[in-house]
From TrEMBL:
<dbReference type="GO" id="GO:0005524">
    <property type="term" value="F:ATP binding"/>
</dbReference>
<dbReference type="GO" id="GO:0004674">
    <property type="term" value="F:protein serine/threonine kinase activity"/>
</dbReference>
<dbReference type="InterPro" id="IPR008271">
    <property type="entry name" value="Ser/Thr_kinase_AS"/>
</dbReference>
<dbReference type="GO" id="GO:0004714">
    <property type="term" value="F:transmembrane receptor protein tyrosine kinase activity"/>
</dbReference>
<feature type="binding site">
    <location>
        <position position="55"/>
    </location>
    <ligand>
        <name>ATP</name>
    </ligand>
</feature>
<keyword id="KW-0418">Kinase</keyword>
<dbReference type="InterPro" id="IPR017441">
    <property type="entry name" value="Protein_kinase_ATP_BS"/>
</dbReference>
<feature type="domain" description="Protein kinase">
    <location>
        <begin position="24"/>
        <end position="299"/>
    </location>
</feature>
<dbReference type="InterPro" id="IPR045272">
    <property type="entry name" value="ANXUR1/2-like"/>
</dbReference>
<keyword id="KW-0547">Nucleotide-binding</keyword>
<comment type="similarity">
    <text>Belongs to the protein kinase superfamily.</text>
</comment>
<dbReference type="InterPro" id="IPR011009">
    <property type="entry name" value="Kinase-like_dom_sf"/>
</dbReference>
<keyword id="KW-0808">Transferase</keyword>
<dbReference type="InterPro" id="IPR000719">
    <property type="entry name" value="Prot_kinase_dom"/>
</dbReference>
<keyword id="KW-0723">Serine/threonine-protein kinase</keyword>
<dbReference type="Pfam" id="PF07714">
    <property type="entry name" value="PK_Tyr_Ser-Thr"/>
</dbReference>
<keyword id="KW-0067">ATP-binding</keyword>
Length: 357
């Protein structure tokens, strides 16, 4: 394959991979999936030692040259702060290894039901992932549109600052970006529960297929759970239809993660849930573009009040009113510091004790 020479600058030797992973030490494994295993390790660079992730593709699980080189080509050409970065690759004998930037917090699916992940953090993660997908769908510097085909919370990684990074491009498809609508006929692939039903039924792939999958992720963020239920490793239920019905019947309170609504401004919830619902509409023409989704998520973020700080701690979440000098203001406070901040039942506060974050 002559095109491989175009990527020689990214290639590293197997001895470097083996050294970084301590010969694929099981204690270095940080993830597993349908592709194989992911190891954490360190490589030398011009800036010193850097921590990276090594994805070892397992041919026994159906991973082959096509998926491997597709990932290399996609991530070497498409660069964005909300796409995972490909650092290197290694291909020797039967080994195929991709080397990525290390997203130390892992994948989003691990945090869906984490009550410490705030509503504002969730909004920012969604906004970042949406920006990454918008870049793929409407790139400015290339004539190619990328359709991911496997958007799910497990494929959205998080770095130290909780920045969202869209990952796993092995199933992606390329189409022309100079058309209002790009339709590709392909064998339906992806993850049950996240796939556009029309794509699964007819095999017609479009950017609206990715939009549907992203809408499922938005509902997962809101509900604090995966969209699928398993029993004894068997898929038993897909929740998207139920979530859609709850929105239509104005019963969002039935599905929102307990404790999350208290953190939300009503306007923020309204705009977020509306765009999530539009994404999972049955009719593709009724779904928003990724550009529209980014705009709506930014609006939802703006609906949230600024976070305040009190004696060095973040003040957030439930709205309470306190008298400050000559006026009233809304204070959001964290239950874990409630006693310290309220000083028992006293509600008189000095305005100077608070500052905008």
């Amino acid at each position: 394959m002559s095109f491989m020479k175009d990527f020689d600058h990214l290639k590293i030797q197997m001895q470097d991979v083996a050294s970084a992973t301590n010969n694929f030490d099981p204690t270095k494994v940080i993830g597993r999936g349908g592709f194989g295993k992911v190891y954490k390790g360190e490589l030398s660079s011009s800036e010193g030692q850097i921590t990276v992730a090594f994805k070892q593709l397992d041919r026994r699980l159906g991973q082959g040259n096509i998926e491997f080189w597709k990932e290399v080509m996609m991530l070497s050409e498409y660069k964005h702060e909300n796409l995972i970065s490909l650092m290197h690759f290694c291909i020797e004998g039967d080994e195929m290894i991709l080397v990525y930037e290390y997203a130390c917090r892992g994948s989003l699916d691990r945090y869906l039901n984490d009550s410490t992940l705030t509503w504002i953090q969730r909004l920012k993660i969604c906004d970042g992932a949406a920006r990454g997908l918008h870049f793929l769908h409407d790139p400015k510097d290339t004539q190619q549109r990328i359709l991911h085909r496997d958007i799910k919370s497990a494929n959205i990684l998080l770095d130290e600052k909780w920045t969202a990074k869209v990952s796993d491009f092995g199933l992606s498809k390329v189409g022309p970006a100079n058309q209002a609508h790009t339709y590709l006929v392909s064998h339906a692939v992806g993850t049950p529960g996240y796939c556009d039903p029309l794509y699964m039924e007819l095999g017609f792939l479009s950017k609206e297929s990715d939009v549907y999958s992203f809408g499922v992720v938005l509902f997962e963020i809101l509900c604090g759970r995966l969209c699928i239920e398993y029993h004894k490793h068997e898929l038993t239920k897909i929740l998207v239809r139920e979530w859609r019905r709850c929105y239509e019947e104005k019963r969002l309170d039935d599905i929102i993660l307990p404790g999350l609504k208290e953190q939300m401004d009503p306007g923020s919830l309204k705009s977020f849930s509306a765009v999530a619902y539009r994404c999972v509409k049955k009719a593709r023409e009724e779904r928003p573009t990724m550009a529209e989704i980014v705009k709506e998520l930014e609006f939802s973020l703006k609906q949230q009040p600024p976070i305040l700080e009190y004696v060095g701690h973040p003040v957030s979440y439930q709205r309470k009113h306190y008298r400050c000098s000559m006026n009233w203001f809304s204070l959001y406070y964290d239950y874990t510091h409630k006693t310290e901040w309220e000083y028992g039942n006293k509600k008189e506060k000095q305005f100077g004790q608070f500052r905008r974050k």
